[in-house]
Amino acid sequence: MTHDPVCGMEVKTPSKYYFDIDGKLYEFCSESCQDKFAVDPMKYIEKTMISEAGYRKTNYGIEKISLPVIGLHCITCVNTIEQEIKKLPGIKIAKVNYTTEMVHVEFKSGKVTTVEIINAIKNAGYKTGQATLELGIRGMYCGSCVSKIEEALSKASGVLSASVDLGTEMAIIKYIPGVMDVKNIKKEIEKLGFQTYDTSGIKPEPGDDKKDEEEIDENQAAREREYKTLMKKFLFAAVLSLPVIFFSYPTIWNLPEQFQRGTETLRLIWIAMSILSLPVMFWSGSQFYKGAWAAFKNRSANMHTLIATGITAAWVYSAVATYFPGVFPEERLADQFFDVIFVVVALVVLGMALEIRAKGKSSEAIKKLIGLQPKTARVLRNNTEIDIPVEEVVLDDIIVVRPGEKISVDGVITDGSSAVDESMITGEAIPVEKGIDDEVIGGTINKTGSFKFKATKVGKDTALSQIIKMVEQAQSSKAPIQKIVDKVAGYFVPAVIIIAIFTFITWYVFGPDPNLIYALITFITVLVIACPCALGLATPISLMVGVGKGAENGILIRSGDALETAQKLDTIVLDKTGTITEGKPSLTDVIAINGFTTEEILSYSASVEKASEHPLGEAIINGAKDKSLTLSEPKDFNASPGYGVESTVDDRKVFLGNLKMMKRNSIELAELEERSKQLADEGKTPMFVAIDGVAGGIIAVADVIKQDSKEAIAKLKKIGLEVVMITGDNSRTANAIAKQVGIDRVFSEVLPEDKAFNVQKLHNEGKVVAMVGDGINDAPALAQADIGFAIGTGTDVAIEASDITLIKGSLKGVVLAVQLSKATMKNIRQNLFGAFFYNGLGLPIAAGLLFPFFGILLSPMLAGAAMAFSSVTVVTNANRLRNFKSTWK
Amino acid sequence: MTADQIFVIIAGLGLAGWVAWYFWFSKAKAVKIQTSDSGVQEAVIKVKGGYTPDVLIFQSGKPIKLNFIREETAACSEEVIFSDLGVRATLTPFKTIPVELNIDKPGEYDFHCAMGMLSGKLIIE
Fold this sequence. Notes:
The complex is a heterodimer.
Chain A (H helix, E strand, L loop, with lengths): L1 E2 L6 E2 L5 E5 L2 E5 L2 H9 L1 H9 L6 E2 L4 E7 L6 H12 L4 E7 L4 E7 L5 H10 L7 E8 L4 H13 L3 E7 L4 E6 L6 H10 L3 E4 L11 H4 L4 H31 L15 H21 L1 H12 L5 H21 L14 H25 L1 H9 L3 E6 L2 E6 L8 E4 L8 E7 L1 E4 L1 H4 L5 E3 L4 E2 L4 E2 L4 E7 L5 H14 L5 H29 L4 H15 L2 H21 L2 E3 L2 H7 L4 E5 H5 E12 L5 H12 L5 H12 L8 E6 L3 E6 L2 E6 L1 H6 L7 H10 L3 E7 L2 E12 L3 H10 L3 E5 L4 H11 L3 E3 L7 H10 L4 E5 L5 H6 L2 E5 L12 E3 L5 H35 L4 H4 L5 H21 L9
Parallel strand pairs in A: 23-30, 23-32, 30-31, 32-33, 33-34
Antiparallel strand pairs in A: 1-2, 3-4, 5-6, 6-8, 7-8, 9-11, 9-12, 10-11, 13-14, 13-15, 15-21, 16-19, 16-21, 17-18, 17-20, 22-34, 24-29, 25-26, 26-27, 27-28, 28-29
Chain B lengths: L2 H23 L5 E2 L8 E7 L3 E2 L2 E4 L4 E8 L8 E4 L4 E4 L5 E7 L4 E7 L5 E6 L1
Parallel strand pairs in B: 1-4, 2-5, 4-10
Antiparallel strand pairs in B: 2-3, 5-8, 6-7, 6-9, 9-10
C-alpha cells in the first residue's frame, strides 16, 4: 500500500497509474490524478515532504520553523531565548529577530519536537504557542478539493500545518495563536467556496444549521449504528423463527395429518426452512462467522467461535436430513434442527444489542468529565475582551468570567469575587466563595459575581485534563482479582469446544436411542450455553463504573490495585496538620481583664501585628477583620525573637508576647497565667497582651480542626478502622487535638522524615495501613503505606505518591473512598461469582448430566437465551454501582 | 462396541487433541518492528475479530507508535487496553487510531479488548 501524492488516497502497489522521477516511483489512484501530477510534479512532491507535524522539511532531514515571541523587551532577551533553545539536542540554528519578534529555528527531524522548542521559549520566560483546531468542512466532493484547501491554508501566515480528510470531512489545522486565529482560518476556507462547521473548538455561530450544534461523538454514533443494525438482525431472525417453530413441532400444535413427519408437504417446508436459514446465519449471524474466522486466524477462539460452530453443526445435520434422508440408517434419525439456528441467532444477537446499550451507561462518568471541558474563553487582550477557543489561551492570560459562565482554565483571581459551583470537580454541592488570590478550577461554573483571573494552567496541565487522564488510566488498569480471570479466559473457549466433543462421544457411545440425535443436541447446547463474555466483562466493567463514580465525588482512584487494597484496610494514619486541621492558624480565643474589652484587646494586638510578617500575626489580623474592627497604624515596631513584639498604637504602648516578655517588662499577670496554661492544654498558642504596662488579656491562636473531621473520624471507626494520628507537635498539643476529634492512638513529635518509618512500624504489627496526608511533605509516608491518600490542594490533583487523591480537602472523602471500594469489590465478586457459577452449572447441565437422574435435558434454544442474558446481567449489575451513595447521613 | 462407535471415539479424541494443540500450544508468529528514520517504531495493527499482527517485537527505550485500524463495528473490539501500562484507547471504526507508548523496561506487555476476548502482546527487547 502507498499513498497517492495528489489526492492522498490509499493505492495498492503496483498501480496501473504511476510516474517515475529520478528512480522514485509515484503511484496514483486514477488517471486524472496521474495527469495532474504530470502537469506539475514538484508541487505534489514537496507536499509529501511536509511531515505530519507540518513544518517545512528539507531533503536533508532538517526542519525549519518560525515562531512569534511575545514580550521581547530588550536585546539581552534574545540571547536568553537562543541559549535556552540551543540546549536542546539537534538544533542547527536558533535565531531571534528582535524587530520582527520572531524565533527562527532549524533542527534535525526526530531529535527534537516543536513542542520542546516552544517549551524552551517558555522556560526562557517568554510566550509563544501552537494551537490545534479541528474544523468540519462541507462541500468537498473530490480529492482535489482536499489539496486546494490544504494548499491555501499552508500558504496563510501563522498556519503550521493543515491536513484535510475527505472521508470525515474534517480538517486538522495547527497554527500559532496571535498570528492566526479561528475566524481567519474559516475565512480562508470559505473563500474557496466551502462551508465550515465546528466539531470541537468553539461554539457554532447563531444562524448555523441546527445539526451542527449537536455534539459529534463518533464513537457514540458508531455504537448507536451497531445497536440499530443488531436490532434489525434480531427482528429479521425473530420474525422468521415463528413459522419455523410452528412447523418444527407438528405433534405439539396438533397439526393436520399432511404436516406430520414423513409427508411430502413437510419435506417441502423443511426445504424452505433450509433456504430461509441461510440469510439468518449469514446476515443476522454474520458477526459470528466473521469473528470466529478472524479469531481462528489468530489462533484464538471466542464467543463467536462457539456460536458459529454450534449453528453450523445444526444446519449441516438438518440439511442432510432434509435432502438426503436415506443416509441415515433409521428414518427417525432424519430430523431437522433449523429452529435452533433461528432462535439461537435471534437471542444472542438481541443479547449483544442490549449489552451495547448497557455498556454505554457504564462509561457515562468519564463522558461527563470530558463534557465539562470548556470550549471558549473570554480573554482580555490589548484591553479588549475577545472570545477565543480555549486551546488558544496561554499562560498569564487574563480571563473575564461573568455570572453563569463556565471557567475556562485553571487560574488565580486577580479582580472581583464570586461564588463558584465546584461540585462537578470536587463533589461538594455548596458553592465556594472566591476572592482575589483564590484559585479557580477550569470546568467549574461561576454563580453570582463577575471576576477576572490569570491563567496558571492551560491545555493538558489543567486539573480537569489531569483528572480525565487519571480516571482513564485507572479504568484501564487491572484489579489483581482479574488475574485469575485472565488465566481462565485464555483456556476457556477451547476447553468448551473440547467438552462439547467429549459430550458428543459420551452420548453417542453410551446414550439411549436415538443416540446420534442426543449427541448432536448436547454438543450444540454445550457450545451455545458457554458465555466467555460474562467472565471477561465481570471485573473491568465494575471497575469502570466504580472509578467513574469516585471521580464524580471528587475521589480519584489511581488503579484497580488501589481500589482492591482500599477495601482491605484496617488502620488509617492521619497526618494532623492540613488533614485533620485546616493547616493554618486562626484566632480562637480573646480574653480581656483589667477593664479592657475583648474588642480593644483584639484591635490593639491586630494593629501591632500589621507590622509583623509572622503567620500567627496574620491569623490575628484576619480574626480582627472578621469582627469588622478598624485597625490603626503601628509606630516604633520592634520584634524580639523568643519573646514577642511591641509597638505604639494610638499613642499607647502595646506588648504582645509570651510569659518571658511579660516578666522582662515586670507586668503583673495574676489569673492570666492559669488561663494561658488551660489554653495550651487545649492545643492552642496563647499570647499575653499588655497595654501601657498593664496586663490586658490573652489572644490565642490555633490550627483549627476542619468542620467535618470529627464526624469523619467517628465514621471511619464505625466502619471498623483503627484511626491513628501522626504529627510533629509535642505530645501535649497532639493529645489535646486527638481528644477533641476522638482519636485514641497518637504518634507525636515525629520528624517529617520519620513518618514513613512509623507507617512501617504499623506494617510490622501486621496491619494494612492507609496514610492520609498532603502529598508534599508526606510523600514518603504515602508511598510506604499500602494506600496513600493525598488531600488535594486546589488544582494539584496528579500527586505522584498517592494511590487515591481527594480533590476536596475533607476527611469525608476517605470514608467515601473506603465505602466505594468496598461496594465496587462486592460488585466485582458478585459478577465473578455469577459468571463462574453460571458457566460452572450451565455446562454440565447442557452436557446432560441431569439426564441419567431426572431425565432433564436442556434445549439448545433455552441455552441460547441463558447465554444472551448472562452478559447483559453482568453489565446491568455493574451499572447498579452508579446508584452508589455514601451512607454518610 | 460397534465400528461406528469406535470411529466416533477416535475421531472425537483426535479433534479434541487438535483443538488443544491449535489454540493452546502452537505459537503465533511474532512480527519484528523496525525503527524508522525519525526514531519511532511504528506498526499498523488491524482489528477485526482479533489483532493482526498480534505479537509485535520492539526495542526498549525508543518511542512506539501503534496505529490501530478497527475494520469492524462489533462492539467487542471497541476499546484496546494496555493494562500493564495503564493506557486505553477507543477505536473508532474504520479510522486510524494511534497509540503512542514509551517503554524502557524489556519484557512482555499484553494488550486486549475490554472483555479480554481478543488479545495481543508487545515484546520489548
